[in-house]
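Protein in question passed on here:
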Amino acid sequence: MISYLDFEKPVAELEARINELRAAAAGDAQVDISSELRRLEGKSAELLAATYAQLTPWQKTQVARHPARPHFRDYVAHAFEEFVPLGGDRCFGEDRAIMGGFATLGGRRIMLLGHEKGHDTQTRIAHNFGMGKPEGYRKAVRLMELAGRFGLPVVTLVDTSGAFPGIEAEERGQAEAIARSTEACLALPVPMVAAIVGEGGSGGAVALASTERVLMFEHAVYSVISPEGCASILWRTAEKAPQAAEAMKLTAQDLKALGVIDRIVPEPPGGAQRDPVAAAQALGAALGEELDALAGKSPGQLREQREERFLGLGEGQPTSRGKPRAGT
């Protein structure tokens, strides 16, 4: 059953009418309403496309958080093969908010890492809503270093509102773990590609996205803080979240223009939540193309490309991808 967002109400009403007609047709075989159904289905598809073509930043944030949006396990099932999960940080324990292991993408062996939010109350609690703890980021460091030793490219799927802010996380060194994970990304001797598939929140996202190539789904968001958090700081109320989202430039389209990300991956009509399989396959194809483009580069070239990309952030235009910047 489809879960509709507030701005999708016109689509919901039209699709409810279509379902009613289908039920009526099933109950009375003598009534032919096929032409009316086709007309309404075409109208519904056009309305859905028009709605998603003009989403505001706040509406995109809602889409990125949609409860039916695919997560790490869905992408593993539909875009990758032969996934072998690896757990534990060899220091404290296992963190199910950040998952990882060996996988195959288009016949290529890789190390796959990503956030898992869960789909229902039980799994969301088990995966801590995708908010990684120190042991999760230390596990990521361990797996990245393992990939470096075996010469395996690394792919990360980012989908988190941010790293877990609880007292126990701070006690175990959350900030240090995030910094070490970011450092491990930048030091990798193998190709690394990140994809923002839902929410990319703060350091909890950057710790898995400090890569030479960053992809982003069409309706995903990526920012240093949530719109609600930003609004609470600036206006002392979370009700200003829509205005904050507009000012934060957190959409894929804004970030591509600013050079923060490199490529936008189109989503199925109505968002990835309407067709998770198609979304996963599109993402897998894009990741494969990026890894192909990075194949053959030396460890030094890869590290230089990452350094150049991150030193260039904030200049307001895409980085030169390997060419020295003025003044450096």
